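Input/output pair, single chain:
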Amino acid sequence: MSSNAVEHYDKHLGKFYAWMVGDFTGASKSMADYFDTIGLQPTSTGKAVDLGCGHGLQTIPLAKRGFAVMGIDTCAFLLEKLKANINELPIELLQANLLSFPKHIHSEVDAVVCMGDTITHLDSIGDVKNLILSISESLSPGGSFCVSFRDYTQSELTGISRFIPVKSDDSRIHTCFLEYDSTVIHVHDLLHTREQDGWSLSASSYDKLRLAPEVLKNLAHDNKLKLVSEITIRGMNYYSFQKHIES
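Output:
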């Protein structure tokens, strides 16, 4: 992940990310339903890697499907949230940069997932290319790579439409403000919190890559990953690829 994305989650967004997502049970069930849709199951090694696992929206459903899961994230706060929910599930947690994951696995894996816009936190298309190469090299034959992200390469929001109300309750208001550059989108997260003497504001920014779906699909194809599923859910694009099985 880019340095400003890591810092943004460590010092700002990570502390209220779980609140922003809302009901964990419902959100993780949505991921389980998606895995049902694409038929994701353990095959040869029974191992999976969750890149950018956060507080476990994908990690928990993967483990419940029978995978032994390595969850990787840079944010210690979110990893602690996930750790509290592991119970007896076969989950190993690691605080590390996504690009370093091949160093921490000791055999091929049946699945790698990178969900929720995580892949757009990388610094460049070059980093995306390197990540997909590493994923392909790490997958067992017939293994799956699942990724989701929003397409920020299409029409740009302008004026006050760049202010997006994300979530609010009696004590918190989260607003997101977007600025567009040629290759990235600058995301500003503004959090108003009710204190005893009034409202306080905390703010932080980070960049997301403007990653075109066709670029992602071409990089996957170039690395022997065949597109097997492509769906859009509430504006998020979901792609599932399968590693080519040599004849």
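Residues 103 and 235 are 33 Å apart (CA to CA). The mean pLDDT is 95.
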